[in-house]
Amino acid sequence: MLSRTLRPHLNLYESDFDDQEATGLAGLGAEKLAANAPISRLDLTACDITDEGAEALFGALRTNTMLKELVLTENRITHKALKTLVKVLTDHNNTLEVLDLSRCEIGDEGSRLLAGVLLFNRSLRCLDLSDANIRDDGATALSHALRCNTSLVSLGLVGNHFNSFTLADLDRAPEA
């Protein structure tokens, strides 16, 4: 009975993998997630995960009902992989609460994709996009989405490059 209540955390923070190993690691993580392994937090910070590996992880979230936190800080993930994530978080997954994509190259296009998620997903509570190469267009898209979203309580945008008018627009977005 005790083993059923435990929700282990898998932390591979700053593991030193080459490209092939990083892709394999992402595949292993995806395999565990797809099998609904009892992992509540998966931290793959600085593991050199690429868009290919991220797409495998995101695709596995279609069937996963256990994972609450996914930390992918400082990986080689761009807006290209986010297309899979958007589909999953919009149509399938309603358990992921924390998503950390800080220090990934998300950019404005990725921000616009994630803004679309915020319009429909009601489980995501924290989204960290700090140092993700977001400029005015991406921040504006997020600001507009926040006007409709009632579940997000934390949005990290430190270290991005948008002007004071955009920042003021974000500040005017209603509190969740």
Task: Give a short synopsis of this structure.
The protein is of the alpha/beta class.
Polypeptide structure, described:
The protein is α/β, with parallel strands linked by helices. It has helices at residues 2-5, 19-34, 51-60, 79-91, 107-120, 136-146, 164-172; strands at residues 9-11, 41-43, 69-71, 98-100, 126-128, 154-156. It has one domain (2-172): Leucine-rich repeat, LRR (right-handed beta-alpha superhelix), CATH 3.80.10.10. Strand 1, helix 2 (19-34) and strand 2 (41-43) form a beta-alpha-beta unit. The protein is globular and about 45 Å long.
Strand and helix map with partners:
Elements: H1 2-5, E1 9-11, H2 19-34, E2 41-43, H3 51-60, E3 69-71, H4 79-91, E4 98-100, H5 107-120, E5 126-128, H6 136-146, E6 154-156, H7 164-172
Parallel strand pairs: 1-2, 2-3, 3-4, 4-5, 5-6
Mean pLDDT: 81
Q: How would the global form be characterised?
A: globular
Beta-strand proportion:
5-15%
- Proper CATH architecture: Alpha-Beta Horseshoe
Which characteristics define this entry?
single chain, 176 residues, Leucine-rich repeat, LRR (right-handed beta-alpha superhelix), disordered N terminus
